[in-house]
Amino acid sequence: MSKREESVRMGKFVKLLLIANLSLWIYFWIGFALASYPYRPDPLGHPAGTGYTFWGHSIAVTESGLKYPFFRIATYVEYPSISVATLAARAFSPRLLLYGFFAGVSKGGWLLLTVMVLSFLQWYLIGWVAQRLWQRWFGDPSSSGIRNQTPSSGPMPPAIASHP
Predict the structure, then answer these.
(1) What Rg value do the Cα atoms of the chain yield, rounded?
(2) Domain limits for position 16
């Protein structure tokens, strides 16, 4: 297989990962739309804007988001993106107080949207690293910069024909 064919094949792998990620988020948002309930200001004494609220539709205001299968799957699959987004949020709010709204979306909702965007970068990088490792381990040794020859084991001289 030529280097170009292998690159195209691995490019398809990256595209497959990104399409799978997009499919996960489509499933997530359909699940969110079906499971959400109207936002109730200050339910059970929780500060306004807790949970994940988008334009009046909420989940995880008084219950754990992990109660929902779509949320649980996204949490496990997108864990690296969640970690990065949470660390960035902590840089701006050390106690991670995500109360309140901006443009009809709760601050927890903005964190979720950030995770969604970061997840595409996450899966692109995973595919890119997989492509590099695949090329290094299984690709043509001359194309990856890895040589199996030591300087002293160069090409063998042609056999000298012995004349009788």
Answers:
(1) 26
(2) 3-139
In a domain, 134, yes or no: yes
Q: What is the mean pLDDT of each run of 10 residues along the chain (164 residues)?
A: 60 91 94 85 60 80 83 92 88 69 79 93 92 78 49 56 57
Q: What does each C-alpha distance from 62 to 16, 39, 92 come to in angstroms?
A: 36, 11, 25
End-to-end CA gap in the chain? 46
CB atoms within 10 A of CB 14: 17
- Paired tokens of 131: 């492509």
pTM equals 0.69
Contact in structure between 32 and 73 (CB atoms under 8 Å): no
CA-to-CA distance for 82 and 84, rounded, in angstroms?
A: 6
- E strand or H helix at 41, and its extent? none
Q: Kindly state whether residue 97 falls inside one of the protein's structural domains.
A: yes
Considering its fold, how many domains does the chain have in total?
Answer: 1
Q: Can you list the positions of beta strands (E) in 4-155?
A: 37-38, 52-54, 57-59, 101-102, 105-106
What distance in Å separates the CA atoms of residue 66 and residue 73, rounded to the nearest whole number?
9
Is residue 130 within 8 A of residue 12, CB to CB? The reply is: no
Query: Would you say residue 40 lies in a domain?
Result: yes
